[in-house]
Amino acid sequence: MGDWVALDIGGANIKLADGLGFAQSFAFPLWKRPKQLGSELARILDHAPADHVAVTMTGELADCFPSKAEGVRSILLAVKAAAGGRRTRVYLSSGQWVTTDAAIARWRWAAASNWHALARFCGRFAPNGYGLLIDVGSTTTDLIPLRDGRPANAGRTDTERLASGELVYTGVERSPLCALLSSANYRGRRCRIAQELFATTRDAYLVLGESAEDSDDLTTADGRPATIEDARRRLGRMLCADAGEFGPADAESLAREVAQAQLKMLHEAAQEVMARLTHPIATITISGHGQHLARPLVDRLGVDAEVIRLSGRLGPNVSRCAPAHALAVLARESE
Amino acid sequence: MGDWVALDIGGANIKLADGLGFAQSFAFPLWKRPKQLGSELARILDHAPADHVAVTMTGELADCFPSKAEGVRSILLAVKAAAGGRRTRVYLSSGQWVTTDAAIARWRWAAASNWHALARFCGRFAPNGYGLLIDVGSTTTDLIPLRDGRPANAGRTDTERLASGELVYTGVERSPLCALLSSANYRGRRCRIAQELFATTRDAYLVLGESAEDSDDLTTADGRPATIEDARRRLGRMLCADAGEFGPADAESLAREVAQAQLKMLHEAAQEVMARLTHPIATITISGHGQHLARPLVDRLGVDAEVIRLSGRLGPNVSRCAPAHALAVLARESE
Question: Mind spelling out the 3-state secondary structure of chain A?
Fold first, then answer.
């Protein structure tokens, strides 16, 4: 048995973990620079020398690839080049491990498989009976049922999972507000909002104090800082209002409506997922950036289950790269 | 009386017209290059020499300006510089004409006033009783009641107009699909869609044959061409599906749902607007890029009114710059 590292290759970030406590996230805009993925991966792999490389991905959905098949192929060829002589295994959403060449052929199972690795890893916290993994991310949310410690998902591809409610394409940072609300209360009146990418969920959670300010972070709807003041301005634009027409109380009111709409959407999806189970859920594991949304979701579900926070088990640093950590652990255990 | 030209300064295009049959649109990304507006306007004004310049705008909402007041001020200072010695008058949403300095002081009335100029111009087609202007644009839709040939709007600022239903921030090109639908039928199942700017209304109307293909036009959600094939791919991404999972029939099904959702939204807003009128509408004027949506909207409203197409009255070229044309006509008539 040699040393493993795992790569989780997304559209905006690449995460690396060894499953033993090392984990790091590297910003890499794959959709802008697909041809540089190989050299970037080689550079990243230098951070954690290992004999074996485990791979999962979601980056095949990036705009730069004409199809998922082509995305998987390009990403895995880049991995192969970067890995050099190291043994490389790709995780499929069936739970199997295969070579890069086999994964290119079985691209539909290699695509978007990181949620399955995380769910399978989380199975150890709920080894008996039914469990539910609630992973609320910046962009998407996974609601994966577990049975006797194994993923018991109804859908496998992202499209199937959207239909099953196991994937909800909403998250606590990037989701456009106009996708969550079509109108909002404004000073006693109901007001249709602008169908435009003027603000995202992160602005709502900044105003509500659930997301930390970061004046260096410009990955917002208008490219201005992720601060409360700028978030308020962005929220106001949803009603074509500027600061004179839209004060802090208006911003908080709109933000609360956003949070409620998102919670309602996740609650409905979780109910769909749970309705397919034949027994009550005994354990709920919550993970992801959006733990602040997972907590009220668990309350609203009203189930009598033990609630486990992944960040409590893994620590804050590793939990930010949870699928990569999970994958490295699974790879080591698979031998 | 001297010669007039009118400028309609938007966030992405500047339109110039003389009210006599000349009209031209100039692409200018104001939000990217606010400091170059003055020199751009000087260049544009060279296309139609005139003694007097009439101005209306919507560009003050562009991201580059911290507030509407600052946007109006910057734009009008640029106009003033570009106009040189020419007499310049700014149209307010009260229907008044003022100098640039007065308009900077009364920025709330100078902001977003072009809809009022268009509505006032259209009043001539409905000189008696109630009329309705339905202007469906690429991004927004105006639903302006007219009474005895004058705008009879309930709201004046964009925020007030969103609340009154007179401004609906949805259009036939740029609106994110996730703002119109939260789920879609996919092969017999209801499927939540991605809350992401993967596709816009233009993709739906391309697939439905209501919008013309233009392989040189890359102003789409993913920066790829405005063709039917690319539109299908973008629509598929709303369901995280690629071409293998999402064929032409799937694309058409999704596109029809988008069109129906948009029509329903406009119908509800138009009913709100009409509910405030004390008498039935005698004349409906339809204008804008989205005439294909205005026609079924008129049918659905089921009112016994004469329907006038602005493009039929003005011709296709002038009608593409209708607010600028309207403004030049009003300016000439104001003397």
Answer: CCCEEEEEECCCEEEEECCCCCEEEEECCCCCCHHHHHHHHHHHHCCCCCCEEEEEECHHHCCCCCCHHHHHHHHHHHHHHHHCCCEEEEECCCCCEECHHHHHHCHHHHCCCHHHHHHHHHHHHCCCCEEEEEEECCCCEEEEEEECCEECCCCCCHHHHHHHCCEECCCCCCCEHHHHCCEEEECCEEEECCCCCCCEHHHHHHHCCCCCCECCCCCCCCCCCECHHHHHHHHHHCCCCCCCCCCHHHHHHHHHHHHHHHHHHHHHHHHHHHHCCCCCEEEEEEECCCHHHHHHHHHHHCCCCEEEEHHHHHCHHHHCCHHHHHHHHHHHHCC
